[in-house]
Amino acid sequence: MLQNAINNVFLQLTSSLEQLDDKLYSMECAILSNATIGKHLRHVIELFQSLEKGYERGIVNYDKRKRDNRIETDKEFALMLLNEIRIGLQKPDKDLVLESSYDEDSSELISIKTNYNRELAYNLEHTIHHMALIRVGINAVSDIQLPENYGVASSTVRHRQICAQ
After folding, report:
1. Which tens digits make up the pLDDT trace of 84-134?
2. Could you state, in order of their start, the residue ranges of all structural domains in the chain?
3. Is the Cβ–Cβ distance between 54 and 159 less than 8 Å?
4. Residues 107, 115, 87, CA angle at the centre, nearest 5°?
5. Is domain 2-164 classified as CATH 2.40.50.100?
6. Counting Cβ atoms within 10 Å, is residue 163 exposed (0-12), middle (13-18) or buried (19+)?
């Protein structure tokens, strides 16, 4: 179920980004504090990559992600990575340790018990949050029409449906 939700979000992302050319994908947007659509997608991809790498080791550390500029500027490369991630999601749940330094004034690592499904849920919510920002960027640089619920959490969609009834 969780993997299906991520798959659906990735398909929505892919569909919208396929409509952008590389120039628009990597164009700085003042409304995004001069970030780009590509930078937001890179961030999403790299968190999923960190989870996949951490799954094998049993330790997930999102802070140590690669920060690959190619993902920010090469839309086709980014879409290929999204697809690879989507295909690789069918793993069984298992216990993991989340490792991070949450204090910018300290490099001390904090370890938190977690599991694969919990981290998938985190990454799904994180992706939807960035899709909301990507939506703002797409609207700023193009006239592409996005689905009404693009970048909206499923709980919000359900709430809106209940209110409309």
Report:
1. 999 999 999 999 999 998 777 877 899 999 999 999 999 999 999 999 999
2. 2-164
3. no
4. 105
5. no
6. exposed
Predicted TM-score (pTM) of the model is 0.91
Residue 148 structure tokens = 């009404």
Dist. CA 165–CA 161, nearest whole Å: 6
164 three-class SS = helix
- Is the separation of the CB atoms in 115 and 94 below 8 Å? yes
Give the count of beta carbons closer than 10 Å to the beta carbon of residue 56: 8
pLDDT, tens digit, 9 for 90 and up, residues 7-57: 999 999 999 999 999 999 999 999 999 999 999 999 999 999 999 999 999
